[in-house]
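Trypsin-like peptidase domain-containing protein
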Amino acid sequence: MKFSVYFVAILLLSQLCIGCNDVSPQEDQTVDKNQKVTRATGRNLSSLAAQAPTQGQSTALEQETSSSDEEGGASTQINNSRKTAITEAVENVSPAVVSITVTEVVQGRRRVGFDQFYNRFFSAPMEREVSSMGSGFIISEDGLVVTNQHVAGENAKKVVISLSEGAEYEAQVLGSDELADLTLLKIDADRTFPTVEFGNSDSVIVGEWSLAVGNPFGLFETAEPSVTVGVVSAINRDFRPNPNEPRVYVDMIQTDAAINRGNSGGPLVDSEGKVIGVNTFIFTGGTSHGFVGLGFAIPSNRVQKIIRQLASSGEVELSFDPGLETREMTYQMVAQYDLPAIPGLLVQSVNRDGPAYEAGILPGDIILKIGNERVQSQMHARALLREFEEGDSMRVELLRKNERYETKMMLRKKVKE
């Protein structure tokens, strides 16, 4: 009886131990998956679990993603670093810079026959058309364009404006001033145009960046402007008038940004993208016809004064009457009237109701300076007088009986008699 009980107990315990070694169907599937993972990756789930990142660590995939993001960020930083104040200035001003093609009628003569009595050829008047190119820039949304007078003057028969976007329009000359070498054009089109912004040329600093924008030599039919970069080399540069040309350049901005033929009339721009001058001429020193590092621009403040008058009346007039008549000093006058050999203006007459008489200026005086500028010629004096307006007090230095005097003229309109 006892033996039977013990036998049954041992048999039950044996069955329980066998059940402990069995694997359930769910666990069997897990093993299969584990084996598949081992075949695919060379690592089983247990090894992956052993290599699982602890807190503060990242997986290989996360590290690769992070590395890719860093490379993209570096590329973005490089691209951003290429954008400077210069590139932004070019981007702002370029759409308003235009190429100008001008057709002018030039007067000439041609030989038509031979006269035996006088033993020479006779000539007859002849007209011919000449085309030239230059640059300019748009200053108003309705299409006002500033350029040099030697690019487009009153003799222009046809003016064509080409924009950087490819559009072309004809333009009319609203007014030109040969003395200041400036012309104001109006585009014939009913649309809105991109414009530039004028800067203050009185605040220009020697050594600051300067950009010359235009179409040198008229090389490119697309009219997309070229850009050259330099610095402001000097300010307040004056040039003695050329006897063969009725132009006076005073207070010019000098730059080493390359300016060549075709750049005339284009803007000189600062690093803020503002126009500080109009590119006008270069000095070659007689060595070549190309740029040698000496370019000059009309300061923007003077440009704005001139174009305001050109826009209103088509010409430049003084807003005051100085009340005197002068004559440029010459060697003939010095010899004839026994005058001192000194550059200046000889006062011929004075209006008793004018500012000159009130300032004590008399006939026979020689005007040496207007403002702080030494007077070189009659043309030069006209240019200097333009720097003043009605209501200003103008300093005048003069010579009387070999003694220097200084006076001030309160500028006003002539008193009607």
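thats it. Residues 8-13, 15-52 have pLDDT under 50 and may be disordered. Residues 324-410 form a domain with the Pdz3 Domain fold (CATH 2.30.42.10). bye
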